[in-house]
Amino acid sequence: MYQKAGLPLPELGEKTFLRHPQIGRISVFVHGAYDAFIMVAASSQRKAYLLANSLRAVMACAYGNVPLEQPSGYLIEMPTLPTPDMTVEDLADLINRIPSGQQVDNIMLRAELRSGSGVDHIHLDEACRILSRAFAHTRVLEALMHLDYSRHLVWGFMVGSFYESHYSLDRRNLTRYQLERIYLENRFRYDSAFVSSFRGIECLLGKPHFRKPEIRDLLAGVDRSFGTSFATSRHRSWHEVFSSGRRWWKYDEIIQYYLDLRNAVSAHGNPSPPHIVMEDQVFEVQYLLQGMIMEILHPNDGVEE
Description:
Blueprint: E1 13-20, E2 24-31, E3 35-42, H1 45-63, H2 88-95, H3 104-114, H4 121-134, H5 138-153, H6 160-172, H7 176-205, H8 215-226, E4 234-236, H9 241-244, E5 248-250, H10 251-267, H11 279-297
């Protein structure tokens, strides 16, 4: 297939994309008839999941690449390293050492190993370079995990052309009655997704349960630590504009605004909600958090000023 397409054959074996001396490594392993999978190698289960969850968060939040949920879990543990000559059947036997005649579980595992979402090598390389910077800053990594979970609850990733040509037009045409119906069907998912993203903002600012007068100083502290300019620059609103009408916000202003919502839906309760968290606020707080994270970790692809 590669030769017919005029492409060079991939090298069998392991190609390492990220190596961290205290945590482990992330690689692509090519085996058998040029099958491949992402391999995480670490000295403990906890470190393996730190690598894997971090990679999943970057791939999902930055590139919209979400792995399929599999019955065997997100990571499938191998007791020993695979070899390049192994087929998918060999891998299944390596993972589940089941006596001959009891191969039903391995047949299902083979199907899992052949499925999954494809990962572009360019995106994987870029994601690992972002992660190499994130591992030096625990609070940024935690913020990334919160964003990933928020998007797991309510997914708002879309390319610009879809936003401009479809989503923004459809959103403007929704009546108040239609918006209320969407809210009533999704209230608890919206609330939970919103709070998870706000927790990510708390991680970035380095202080949980902050108060409004502290926000500007906390943003200045982030700027000193990472060379950003959140204390003086503005955030462009793509989704909140449907509710508030505002296109541009100072970072401290929009975080204050969302602090009131967070207090309403989380800390203080919101039984008969005067503060309604809609798709607008969920998408916008996700976008705000993602923009701040990427401005810190990948400043060449930061938010528009």
